[in-house]
Amino acid sequence: MTDDIRRFCKETYEAVYAREMEDGHGADKKETHAQKEAIKAAIMEAMRSFPATDTSELWRSIYEVHVHHKSGIDNAETIAKVISADQSWKKSSGHAFEEMIKFLANEALSDTGIEILLQRDLSIMLKEKTLANEPRDISWLKEKVKGNVFDLYAVCERKDEKKFCFGCIQSKTSIRDRVTRDREPSIQAMQSYFWSTIIVLDGDFLRNHKFVSMVNGGSSEFPENGWHGMYVFSDRHSQDRIYATDLELKTFRDHARKAALYWLSQRQWFDRAWRAEIEFVADE
Asked: With contact defined as beta carbons under 8 Å apart, do 99 and 40 qualify?
């Protein structure tokens, strides 16, 4: 990790943190909000400014900045032992990444009639009864929201302006330690005929063939795929249902459009085997 990267991440984080602390959020939520916004801005700007640097290295730099900010400790080994600061990072960084994906995905999908929602956004729609999904879907979605199962959801609008939730999305900074736990709800979503995807910042875990098989299937332990697609901020791991992506999320946009079209037209066939690469044109 270069001094330039450390300095850039530190300056970006601290500038955004200071700005957000001056804004008018409630005192009890101000610091949490400022931390989340600082992490989100720092990783997005670092990825734009250092495109040749692995995202895991950039994320590590922001981690050190954040924990130093909370604890006042500079040494990385000592930082790891500061439990309160480390827990603060895990909570804030996870929420920051979710909001980053929501922002980037909605920018990419702005002209498609598809919107990506945080769990709390979908919860509001469920309470206000603004989704046109069948009652069975609504009950299933309420159960997932109550259990904090998915991080984001995909909603599309039909020509008659009715809105439907058609996709469940997990967003993870790294899933090495919990990939098995994340895989099971994804399988349940596919079995319930929802589009199920996952967006990952750090793809280093995919060096292990076991994790690749968890996504793509094809092994004796994991004969079937665990997601319709995984989108990773790295160009080193693309294969089968694992797709490289960048901040523009072009592949995700393309797949979301195809998934929404197929879901609205032939949902009864939207099973675990569905692939975005298969060309499909709905009947008018």
From this structure: yes
pLDDT at 60 (0 to 100) = 87
Q: In a 3-state reduction of DSSP, which class is residue 91?
A: helix
For residues 27 and 90, the answer to whether their CB atoms sit within 8 Å is no
Pairwise CA distance, residues 171 & 152, whole Å: 7
| Count of residues in the chain | 284
Average pLDDT, the chain: 88
Using a cut of 0.90, tell me whether the model's pTM lies above it: no
Give SS3 for 114.
strand
Which pLDDT score is estimated for 236? 78
Instruction: Confirm if 93 and 58 have CB atoms less than 8 A apart.
Output: no
Q: What 8-state DSSP symbol labels residue 94?
A: H
Q: Exposure string (b/e) for 130-147, b if CB count within 10 Å is 16 or more? A: ebebeeebeebbeebbee
| Residue type present at position 121 | D
Edge to edge, what strands does the sheet with 242-244 contain?
114-118, 152-157, 163-172, 195-200, 229-232, 242-244
Confidence of residue 83 (pLDDT cuts 50, 70, 90): very low
